UniProtKB/TrEMBL annotation:
SUPFAM superfamilies recorded: NAD(P)-binding Rossmann-fold domains (SSF51735)
Protein name: Dehydrogenase/reductase SDR family member 7
The organism's place on the tree of life at top rank: Eukaryota
Pfam families per UniProt: adh_short
Keywords recorded for this protein, A-Z: Oxidoreductase
Record InterPro entries: NAD(P)-bd_dom_sf (IPR036291), Sc_DH/Rdtase_CS (IPR020904), SDR_fam (IPR002347), SDR_family_member_7 (IPR053011)
Coiled coil ranges: none
Family, per entry: Belongs to the short-chain dehydrogenases/reductases (SDR) family.
A GO molecular-function descriptor: oxidoreductase activity
CDD domains reported for this sequence: 11beta-HSD1_like_SDR_c
Length: 315
C-alpha cells in the first residue's frame, strides 16, 4: 500500500478510522534507530519511547545518545534496560556486523530498523569537491546499505520485520545546491524499491521509504559544503519548515500501518512533488523557475529553503 500524506487532518482521520495507532501497534517492539542523537532521529526516540517501544539508539556521539536515553526514560514508562545505547559510525562498515550482533544479543531480536543517519549538502556543483560527493555516497547510501544487509538476514530468518529508510523529497526530484545529497537519496530510493520486490516471498517484511520535505532539525547546520571540513555559513530561519515532532508522528503512523512510501511535507513543497508525480513536464518548468531563485538567494546569503518565501537581497 502506498499513500501520499495530503495534510495532517486527513492523516489522523485515516489512522484513527481504518488504520493502527502507533501507540498500540508499536508497543513492545524492538526498534533500532540510527542517527538518534539529534534531529529526526532524536525525536523518533522520544515518540517511540512514549509508544512503549524498546529502543536501540545509535550514532557516533555516545554522550548525546545517553542524553537522549535519559530524556526517553524521564518521559515514558520505559526502564533503563529497555533502551540500549549502541554507538555506531556508518562509515566504519567493518564494524556493522559486530554492532548488529550486539543489538540482537541484547534484546533477542530486532523488529524495526529505522535507517535515519546521514548528512545533507549546501553547495553549488561547480564549487564542490569530488571528495564531498564521495563522502555523501559513503555515508548516506553505502552506510545505510551496510546496516540493512546485516539486519535483513535476521528478519528473513524470522519471517517478519520492518526496514525503514529515511530518504528525502529530493530523492524523488532533484534540487539545486544538493546535487550530491539528491544523488545519494535517489540511490536509496532505487535500492529499497528493488529490494522490496526481491522480498515478495516474505510478505511480513515491510520495506518503507520516508521522503520528508524541509523539517526543523539540525540537518542544515551539519550539511556538507563545497569542501569536506568547511561548515555551513548560516542555516537561516527554520520557522517555515515542518516541526520535527509533526514529521515523526506522521512517520510512525505510516510505519504502524505498513506504508511502503511516505511523502511528508508542508505546502508548497508537497504540491511541487505532486506535480512531479502527475505532470512532469509542468514540474520541469516550475523546477527551473524555483531552482533559479533558490540559487540566487543562496548566493545572497539566505537559507536555501526559506528562499522561496524571502525576497532576494539587493545591493
Amino acid at each position: 500500500m502506498c499513500f501520499i500524506f495530503a495534510d495532517a487532518d486527513f492523516t489522523l482521520l485515516w489512522a484513527s478510522v481504518i488504520g493502527h495507532r502507533p501507540e498500540t501497534k508499536l508497543k513492545g517492539l524492538v526498534v533500532w534507530v540510527t542517527g538518534a542523537s539529534s534531529g529526526i532521529g532524536e525525536e523518533l526516540a522520544y515518540q517511540l519511547a512514549k509508544c512503549g517501544s524498546r529502543l536501540i539508539l545509535s550514532a557516533r556521539r555516545e554522550h548525546e545518545l545517553n542524553r537522549v536515553k535519559r530524556q526517553c526514560l524521564d518521559n515514558s514508562s520505559l526502564q533503563d534496560e529497555d533502551i540500549l545505547v549502541l554507538p555506531l559510525d556508518l562509515l566504519k562498515r567493518k564494524s556493522h556486523e559486530e554492532k548488529t550482533k550486539a543489538a540482537i544479543q541484547y534484546f533477542g531480536h530486532i523488529d524495526i530498523l529505522i535507517n535515519n543517519g546521514g548528512r545533507s549538502q549546501r553547495s553549488l556543483c561547480l564549487e564542490t569537491s569530488v571528495d564531498v560527493y564521495q563522502a555523501l555516497m559513503e555515508l548516506n547510501f553505502l552506510g545505510t546499505v551496510s546496516i540493512t544487509k546485516q539486519v535483513l538476514p535476521h528478519m528473513t530468518q524470522r519471517g517478519t520485520g520492518s526496514i525503514v529508510a529515511v530518504s528525502s523529497v529530493v530523492g524523488l526530484a532533484g534540487a539545486p545546491l544538493a546535487t550530491g545529497y539528491s544523488a545519494s537519496k535517489h540511490a536509496l530510493q532505487g535500492f529499497f524499491n528493488s529490494l522490496r520486490t526481491e522480498l515478495t516471498d516474505y510478505p511480513n517484511i515491510l520495506i518503507s521509504t520516508v521522503c520528508p520535505g524541509p523539517v526543523q532539525s539540525q540537518i542544515v547546520h551539519n550539511a556538507f559544503t563545497e569542501e569536506l571540513n568547511k561548515p555551513v555559513a548560516t542555516a537561516g530561519n527554520q520557522e517555515h519548515k515542518m516541526p520535527t515532532s509533526r514529521c515523526v508522528h506522521l512517520m510512525l503512523v505510516g510505519i504502524a500501518n505498513g506504508v511502503k512510501e511516505m511523502w511528508i511535507a508542508q505546502q508548497p513543497f508537497l504540491l511541487f512533488y505532486y506535480a512531479w508525480q502527475y505532470t512532469p513536464t509542468f514540474a520541469w518548468f516550475i523546477t527551473n523557475v524555483l531552482g533559479r531563485k533558490r540559487v540566487q538567494n543562496f548566493k545572497a546569503g539566505l537559507d536555501a529553503d526559506s528562499a522561496y518565501f524571502t525576497k532576494t537581497k539587493t545591493s
